[in-house]
Design brief:
Blueprint: E1 2-8, H1 13-17, H2 30-42, E2 50-53, H3 57-70, E3 78-79, H4 96-103, H5 105-113, H6 125-145, E4 150-154, H7 156-167, E5 184-189, E6 195-201
Parallel strand pairs: 1-4, 2-3, 2-4
Antiparallel strand pairs: 1-5, 5-6
Length: about 210
């Protein structure tokens, strides 16, 4: 059995301002660095063999803070754009709470959390799923099936896609999936690649 640890990056400077970030390459906020350190300490008992991050620097900064917390300077992550955040298109940089007032609660939640809701010049969650899951099955799953533990530091929507896949969440329930910044979702994976169990560490009740 192997462990798959999914960690959403710590609070970024745009998260702190309530702005839709998407592919904009912003830094972690100071509180995000602390969340990352907390996540690292929470998984210190798991020996990470291979780590993956997205191509956006907030995931690398989160990984670096986690690595410092667990004392694993030998560990270098593999970066891939397949794990990037959802492209928010014309909404990138917009304040999500102002958008909520403009669009109304129902339309806002549909846009933010819906499964196949298009964004002009951007991606739906279904689009994100269609790039994240093939990367997982081709690159990450074989590592797990070999008995090695994997850490993935990515984003709210790329990780929601993985959680949907791992837990077989129906399309109409995907809006209920929520991962707090700096949370560590720890899956135990059987040799055949199926999920055996799950626990959440470094729980963050604050959702952004």
């Amino acid at each position: 059995m192997a462990y798959l640890v999914l960690v959403r990056h710590g609070t970024s400077v745009w998260n702190a301002l309530g702005q839709w970030t998407g592919l904009t390459d912003v830094d972690l906020a100071p509180e995000g660095v602390e969340e990352a350190r907390k996540a690292g300490k929470a998984i210190k008992d798991i020996h990470v063999d291979v780590a993956y991050v997205s191509a956006l620097k907030r995931t690398r900064q989160t990984f670096d803070a986690m690595r410092d917390a667990i004392g694993r300077n030998d560990l270098e992550p593999i970066a891939s754009a397949a794990l990037n955040e959802r492209d928010y298109g014309i909404y990138a940089g917009r304040n999500k709470w102002q958008m909520k007032e403009t669009l109304g609660e129902e339309k806002f939640q549909e846009l933010r959390r819906g499964w196949d809701v298009p964004i002009p010049e951007g991606e739906s969650l279904k689009n994100v799923y269609e790039r994240v899951v093939p990367y997982y099955t081709e690159h990450i799953l074989p590592v797990l099936e070999s008995g090695r533990n994997v850490l993935v530091v990515a984003h709210g929507n790329s990780l929601r896609s993985l959680v949907k896949y791992l837990e077989r969440v129906p399309d109409d329930r995907v809006a209920e999936l929520e991962l707090g910044t700096g949370e560590a979702h720890v899956y135990s994976i059987d040799p055949d690649g199926s999920m055996h169990g799950k626990e959440v560490r470094a729980v963050n009740a604050k959702k952004v």
